[in-house]
Amino acid sequence: LARNFSGCDILWSLFVAAAKSYRFSSILHPFPPMYKSNSDDEKNILSLRNTMLLVPKLSPSLEFIPSL
């Protein structure tokens, strides 16, 4: 995070966009295994989306930005 804040932000944004898409099943690979049901490879997208809401926003805090 400290070395590449923009890269982390872009990757997280792509992940969130894929998870919010109606096509999440075909574009979100690999699907996080802890959100898969044991039977029939069912994906618990609602639980994943709820977990995403709990993740704090990325902040380009000065403590993470190396001095020039």
Automatic annotation (TrEMBL):
This is PARP16 N-terminal domain-containing protein. It comes from Arion vulgaris. It comes from the Eukaryota. Residues 1-59 form the PARP16 N-terminal domain.
